[in-house]
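Handout for the seminar on molecular recognition.
Each group receives one record of this type.
Step one: identify the two inputs.
Step two: read the structure output and locate the region that could contact protoporphyrin IX containing FE.
Step three: write two sentences on what you found, then compare them with the reference statements printed after the record.
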Amino acid sequence: GQTLHLPTNGALNIVLVLVASCLLFLLACRKKKFKNLPPGPTPLPFIGNMHQVDVKELIKSLRELSGTYGPMYTFHLGSRPCVVLSGYKVLKEALIDKAEEFSGRGDFPAVQMWSNGNGIVYGTGERWRSLRRFAISTLKNFGMGKRSLEERIKEEAQFLMAEFRKTQGKPFDPTFFLSCAGSNIICTLVFGDRFEYTDKKFLTLLDLINSNWKLMSSTWGQLLFTFPKIMRHVPGPHRLIYKNYLKLAEFVRERIEMNRETLDSNHMRDFIDCFLIKLQQEKNNPDSHFSEETMSKTTVNLFFAGTETVSSTLRYGLRILLRHPEVEEKLHEEIDRVIGPNRSPCMEDRSRMPYTDAVLHEIQRYADIVPMGVPHTVTRDIEFRGYTLPKVPFDPTQFKNPNSFDPTHFLDENGRFRKNDALMAFSAGKRVCLGESLAIMELFIFLTSILQSFNLKPLMDPKDIDITPESSGLGNIPRPYQFCLLPR
Ligand code: HEM
C-alpha cells in the first residue's frame, strides 16, 4: 500500500508546542512536517479530536473511529497528533516486522514528571536498552521462567488459600488478597523477600499502586494525558499520581539502603543487590546508564508492573467467572480430573488442561487490562505508519464473537487448546512485556489453586453481574465487587 513518512518524536514535539496556539498553523505545520500522516477526523484548535470521543471510554471511541478511518489514522490528542494503529495485521507489521523502529516509548505525561525518561517502562534509547537487558538477565538468574520460581508461586498460592479460608464463606472484596499474592512474587525477586498479608506498610504500598493504576485510567488521568501542560496546574485527583510515585520511590530507597548496608558480593540476594554491584563496577564509566536514579526508577517499575497487572487480571477473571457459572463448572471438572484434590497445581498440568488454558487466554482477551498498550514512538524517520498503539484484542476478523466472553475462541472443535496470535495481551516486539513468562505462571497457578479449593458464590443473580469495566484508560478497571468463597 501507500508508504508514509513519519518523523521521529523529536520533530513531533517541536510541532506540538506550536500547534497549541492555532489551527491554521497546525495545518501549515502538518503540510510541511507531517504531510504524509494518515488521514483521520478533522481536529479543532487546542482540543484536537477530543470533542469526537467519550473521554471516559477513549478506547471504545478510538475503536469506533477505526471503523470509519481504517486500521491506521491520525488522531489529535489535544494538540498532539498521534497515529492510532488497530487490528492484528497492522500491529504485527509494526511491532514485529519493524520491531527496532517501533521500539521507542511515546510521551506519557502522567508519569513523565516522575520518571524523567529513566527506568524501563518509560525509558527510551540506549538507556532503556541496557536497563531492560540487565533486568531480564538478572530476573532470569533469580529464576524467572524457571522451576525454582514455580515453587515460590506454589508456596504463595498456599498462603493465599489460607487467607481465603479465613473469610469463612462470608462476603469480601478480593482486591488486596490478590495484590498481596501477585506482588509477593515480584517482591521475592526484587527485594529478596515476601511480605505478610497483614503487613501495614506492604498494604499501604499496594494501595498506592492500585490507586495510581486507577487514577491513570480515570477521566482525570485521560485529561492529564491529553492536556499535560494545563492539567499539571489544575487541582484534582490526577495530581496524586506524582505524589504516589514519590512515596513508592521512598520505600524503594529505604530497601536499597538496607541492601547496601548488608551487601555481600559473594551472595547476591535479589535484583537490588545485583544493581548495587553493577553500580560499583561502572562507577568509573562516565557514560554508564547505571546510577542511583535509574536503580530507583527501574525497581519501582518492576514492583509496579509486576503487582497490579497480575492482580487485576485475576480480580477481573473471578468476576467474569461469577457471571459465567457454566464456565466455572467446567473448570472444576477439569481440575478435579487432572490434578485432583491432594496436590498443588503445577505448570506441567497445563498441557493436559486445554479448557483451563483457553479460559485464561479468554480472560486476558476479554479483560484486556492494558487496552491501549503503552504509547510507542518510532525511533527514526521511517517510511511507514504510526505512533500510539491501541492494541485491539477485539479484532472481529480474528475472533468470531469478539464482544462476548467465550473460551471457545481458544479451543478447536475437538476441545484442544488453539493458540491465536491476535491476542497480544503482553504486546509484541522489542517492548514486549518482560514479565510475560512470570505472569503466565502466576495466573495459571493462582487461578487453578483457587478453583481447586473453593466454589465461587456471587451475591446476586449471575445474569445481573456487569462484566464491562468501571473505567478504561491506561488500564481497564474491573468494577469493585464482593463475593463468597465456599470450601469444596
Ligand atoms: C497479566 C500480567 C501482565 C500483563 C497483561 C502485562 C502487559 C504489559 C504490556 C501490554 C506492556 C507494554 C508493552 C509495550 O510497550 O508494547 C508491558 C510492559 C512491561 N511489563 Fe508487563 N504485563 C504483565 C505482567 C508483568 C509482570 C509480572 C512484570 C514483572 C516483571 C511486568 C513487567 C513489565 C515491564 C518492566 C514492562 C516495560 C517493558 C519495556 O518498556 O521495555 N509485567 N506489560
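Reference statements: The chain has 17 helices and ten strands. Residues 120-121, 132, 186, 301-302, 305-306, 309-310, 313, 369-370, 373-374, 425-427, 431, 433-435, 438-439 surround protoporphyrin IX containing FE (CB under 6 Å).
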